[in-house]
Amino acid sequence: MSEMSSIFDAGAFADEAEGSHTLPAQWYWDPAIYERERQAIFARSWLYAGPAAEVAEPGSYATAIVAGRDIAIVRGRDRVLRAFHNVCSHRAHRLLDGKGRRSVIVCPYHNWSYDIDGAFKTARGIEGARGFDRRAAALKEVRVEILAGLLFVNLDSGARPLAEIGGAMAREMAERCPGLDRLTLARSHRVETRANWKALVDNDLESYHVAPAHPALAELLDYSTFRVWEHEFTTSHIMAGAVGDNRAYAVGADDPVQNAIYTWLWPNTAFFISPGRNNLAVFQMVPKGPELTEQVWDFYFEDAELNEAERAMVDYTCDILIPEDAGLCENVQRGLRSPGYRQGRFVVNRANPELSEHHVHMFQKLVRDAVLGAP
Ligand code: FES
Ligand SMILES: [Fe+2]
Questions:
Q1: How far apart are CA 43 and CA 66, in angstroms?
Q2: What is the model's pLDDT at position 255?
Q3: Which ligand is nearest the CA of 113, by number?
Q4: Which atom of ligand 1 lies at the shortest distance from residue 123's CA?
Q5: Atom 4 (ligand 1): residue with closest C-alpha?
Q6: Domain boundaries, position 232
Q7: For 77-107, what is each residue's pLDDT tens digit?
Q8: Cα gap 44→196, rounded to integer Å
Q9: 221/129 same-domain check
């Protein structure tokens, strides 16, 4: 059936969006592609791991699952932020759960203990283990950085610094949302969508579908002011909010955030700052299988107590916008299985970005290069 010699062939996908087809449909369901992506993308990229405010004080810790791995993020007595594989070097029990504060990390299984900087401390009866190497028993560190008041973890010790990859994007967000790094995690929403993670990212990176698929959003935002740009691993989409009544929620003329700025950080984290008080919604598209994605939404506001407009914004997002997009992506996922579809075309219209998918192409090119091992 397929003219392609192997699944690891991007077919008519090309370097330039204007002349390119979309990635082959099989890349959205083949388990070999999924496995390659786990190694080549998720084990090597900066992934969102929660609010940095939870690890502000010495001894405070938070836990997260990053690229399928249990990770603990700990603020040391020296105030240095560290992240570790959250696993005991004795017989692999998980060390920390949830979040909190510790002066020493004690494994619940047999009580081996570690300093909060990760150094091995004590193990009852360890003198019987010949040649025991205390240094080798230390916790295994992974990279952690803070961007826009958020924690990001990277399992690749050789990864480029996050500040280098996402710094320009974060500055653009802070310019339009001055209280960005002082926000509080006020609401979380989790939902599974039966589609490949890339179908969700593709959908996030274009507004071509807004007019047909999101009638209320099309009223909230003034798409005549829509501008988009990109850096090497991020995209930024900005437009003015339409002040006044619309079907999404109310925005006041004197609210500090008047523009909507929607950004994305390779590979799977999107950020939404919406008209209103200072706010940030983090949207991470976490792959759970070749055709299953967990949508992780964290809503940050000035205060844990939301005002009426903010409650309406969260309700609109969770009850209307997310289901609208999930419906599109699940529908597309079935289509990607159809023998009647192999590779589509991008609509590229740089002068009128509301009708342009060149950022979808940019994302798919990063995927192609990572999967095929290009530089
Ligand atoms: S597994 Fe942690 S002390 Fe045994
Ligand atoms: Fe959408």
A1: 9
A2: 83
A3: 1
A4: 3
A5: 110
A6: 167-372
A7: 999 999 999 999 999 999 999 999 999 999 9
A8: 19
A9: no
